[in-house]
Amino acid sequence: MKLTNFINGKWQEGEASYTAVLNPANGEQLAEVRMSTKEDVDAAVEAAVKAQKKWALVPAPKRADYLYEIGRLMKERKEHLAQVLTKEMGKVIEEGRGEVQEGIDMAFYMAGEGRRLFGETTPSELADKFAMSVRAPIGVVGLITPWNFPVAIATWKSFPALVAGNAFIWKPATETPMMAYEMAKIFEEVGLPSGVANVVFGSGSEVGTAMIEHKDVKVISFTGSTDTGSKVAELGGKHLKKISLEMGGKNAVIVMEDADLNLAVDGILWSAFGTAGQRCTACSRVIVHKDVKKELEKMLLERMEKLTIGDGMDETVKVGPVINKAALEKIHSYIQIGKEEGANLVVGGTILQDGDLAKGNYYAPTLFTDVKPDMRIAQEEIFGPVVSLIEVESLEEAIEVNNGVKFGLSSSIFSRDINKIFRAQRDLDTGIVYVNAGTTGAEIHLPFGGTKGTGNGHRDSGVAALDVYTEWKSIYIDYSGKLQRAQIDTE
Ligand code: NAD
Known about the structure:
Elements: E1 2-3, E2 6-7, E3 10-11, E4 17-22, E5 29-35, H1 38-55, H2 60-76, H3 78-89, H4 93-113, E6 120-123, E7 129-137, E8 140-144, H5 152-163, E9 167-171, H6 178-189, E10 197-199, H7 204-213, E11 217-223, H8 226-238, E12 242-246, E13 251-255, H9 261-273, E14 283-289, H10 293-305, H11 325-341, E15 344-347, E16 366-369, E17 386-392, H12 395-403, E18 407-408, E19 410-414, H13 418-427, E20 432-435, E21 451-452, H14 466-469, E22 470-478
Helix pairs in contact: 1-7, 2-4, 3-4, 4-5, 9-10
The structure holds nicotinamide-adenine-dinucleotide.
């Protein structure tokens, strides 16, 4: 199967170079994807500019009708989409279904915004004058997405963009183009006007750069690593683009001495080893009170040994492969780094090669103990199934350790003490805080994003996402029939 671009309502034809899409579970080739050029981006932007002018004039509730239809088709195809997702990305099928559901939820939620898109009415300081502010679409927006959530993140961005009256060009990650292809087929089937939704495949350096530099792309919404995000911000800043960045994390679960330890272990396992540790919100640090450290470690080890590893299409598997060989090597390099820094490798730390596992990219769930907060394994995003246990003596110290990294995406605390919980939710410097749950599990109607090196103040998902794709327009209507000067004719 050859995946080509969806531009101006058509599947792009003509000569192009293609690259293989591999199944991370077994190395098999699933498809080939077009590696697009700057000219392809130019064609998509030209179509989008034209289409957006008309799309912005379609009443928002009518725009929303397309989203209801997209949601309906996604729901109808949920199992098929989940299987495509698991094959190209590797996450276990149960999580694949969950991610598709997130996209469905987002479609219906944002469709509801078509009948809200609330602005404000407010009194004027002058007599016989009316004032209001409304959300206005911005124009053509560029969406750049990562491979670890190939559909959910795209829906967090494209659906608010659409309902607000923008047209978009979406560049998915080269590793996971199949979900974008499936979504483009849905955009085509629901009859979105040509040019409103465009998908251009290819590399970040070629397609991403061309989108950021194009004078007619007004907004860039990026999700990916902090290194790439800062490059996007630098280039986008030079071209005066509105840039929304959602980037890396180094998320921690805090386990206090009064926690329900069984529940804490459930939360740690799900958020550390789900998606093989490749979630931006993955738990990669466990900050544990010294009084329960030994017991928690023992319980964690017992449960880690029972984790089944393999192809995510097998319903019994709990931990799937990581995305590619480069990721395997990056994860593995941190084992040596951890050991050299003096951390204690308790379990894991190996690339799995037994039998069929050798065909895919599998890494053993790994636990380090005796980790100090400033070690590289406790500071840098490893993006794999590797957890560091850090011992602390108090809630204050736990919060300080949690906050002592450059990222600020997600954090969690397990405790039964309401005073500790309320202090923690106030003082944890992350965009998302969980109480008595792991670091993952965002719901689409709340804002998603992080502080510090994780973001630049914008949010995906929730009503907050509309702020990325709209401008506020303030409108004053004077019905006094005379010149009334603000701040002067107020007496
Ligand atoms: P990445 O930064 O390598 O790539 C992300 C996207 O940017 C891809 O589409 C890629 O092709 C593109 N890109 C690469 N170089 C570019 C450039 N110079 N200009 C424009 N675009 C460019 O990230 P990844 O490996 O695909 O994803 C994993 C990262 O994403 C992790 O750091 C993870 O924490 C982060 N992430 C963050 C969130 C969040 O919401 N905060 C969610 C998911 C993933």
